[in-house]
Amino acid sequence: MFFDLVFVVAVSIASAQLHHAFSAGHVLHGLTSFAMLFFAIWWAWMNFAWFATAFDTDDWLYRVTTIVQMGGVLVLAAGIPDAFEHGRYGIVVAGYVVMRIAMVAQWLRASRGAGRLRRATLRYAAGIAGVQVLWILFLLLPAGAVQIGAFVVFAMMEMSVPIVAEREVRTPWHPHHITERYGLFTLIVLGESLLASANAIIDALHEAESFLPFLSISVLTLVVTAALWWIYFWPEHHTAVGSFGRSLRYGYLHYFVFAAAAAFSSGIETELDVLTGDSALSSTAASFAVTVPIAVFLLCVWWLVIRPAGDRVIDVVMPGGAVLVLLDPVLPVPVGLTAGIVAAIVVVLVVRGSADRPRP
To answer: Could you tell me if residue 17 is inside a domain?
Structure first.
């Protein structure tokens, strides 16, 4: 949890920069930059989470290398504004490489007593180290399509490292532990939405003539955030990582779960800017900044963990609700309707699952 806390800083800064890009009307640039930067945050976190579930010795050297990775996260976070505003990724790459080299050191250390897993641990170390050279070369590429294309290729190479490393033998993982880690990170990114709700109340206190719109957004944001939390934790997640293939699907698709939850808070902040007249986006476009992340979150959570545990009714309500959320911006009260839809999904889950789900 201490390790996760530094990611709060990085996620918060990335979400704030996405909000600023939206309000300035730079939607495509904001989405592209956010997707690239959030990948660095998510991938570094996820790699450590899976390593820790297998090789967490919790001795002094393990803690020191983990703290080094935390320092890398802070460096990366410090470089996010410059990357968003000017396309300069030097500080971001420096922080990312610090994290990944520390991860290489941990894999090499784990290899000494890994026994039959030694080859897998060495493959992890070699694969991660090799891709870091490419990220350094990434800084030499011209900004624009070439850099974005290189990012896609290098990111795919990063994600291929676990597949190649575990080709012959699988490193162990604890299903309950690893899914608990994902749950904790989900709470972090959803917490950004609660911050947006608080900001709505703060803005309302300074807008006496239009107090109710700000207050209503604050209340509805709390309702939606609580509903997303309820939906995410409704099923038992540990059953979704029963095999290597399913664990890869669970881990990789969580990029969209985490990114959507973080982008939701950016959308709320953009809606607030529309109310104060500080946004270049129209009210409808700002509403899409809220509803698209919610719909992505709902679809991914349904596909990953609710679909295997649900029934036909839930399999209609979840994707159907996501589609309705996407249509909300063209209606008079988009945020209010969105809150009603996600609350209705929660009700359906509770009713359909209450008979056979154990009490906490």
So the answer is: yes
pLDDT for the residue numbered 332:
59
Residue partners of 289: CB distance under 8 A and separation at least 6: 22, 263, 266, 267, 270, 271, 281
- Residue 192 and residue 261 in contact, taking contact as beta carbons nearer than 8 Å: yes
And the tokens for 347? 């009700």
Cα(39)–Cα(37) distance, integer angstroms: 5
pTM attached to this predicted model:
0.91
Q: Does residue 267 have a pLDDT over 60?
A: yes
Q: How many angstroms separate the Cα of 9 from the Cα of each of 73, 82, 195?
A: 8, 15, 13
Which positions ≥6 away from 342 have C-beta within 8 Å?
223, 224, 227, 228, 231, 294, 298, 321, 325
Residue 216 sits in which domain range?
175-353
Report pLDDT digits (tens) over 309-330: 778 899 999 999 999 998 888 7
Over residues 132-147, the mean pLDDT reads: 91
Whether 77 and 225 share a structural domain: no
Look up residue 219 and give its two tokens. Answer: 């209340």
Q: Which long-range contacts (CB under 8 A, 24 or more apart) does 147-154 make?
A: 147/87, 148/32, 148/36, 151/36, 151/39
Q: How many of the other CB atoms lie within 10 Å of CB of 257? A: 25
Contact status, residue 171 vs residue 120, Cβ threshold 8 Å: yes
Q: What is the model's pLDDT at position 4?
A: 86
Q: How many CB atoms lie within 10 A of CB 220?
A: 23
Q: Based on the number of CB atoms within 10 Å of its own CB, is 273 exposed (0-12), middle (13-18) or buried (19 or more)?
A: buried
CA angle 346, 221, 285 (to 5 degrees): 110
Least Cα distance to 22 among 295, 322, 326, 285 occurs for 285
Among residues 123, 141, 165, the one where a domain terminates is: 165
Establish if 133 belongs to a structural domain. yes
DSSP character string of 34-75: HHHHHHHHHHHHHHHHHHHHHH---SHHHHHHHHHHHHHHHH
Name residue, tokens 């109310």.
275
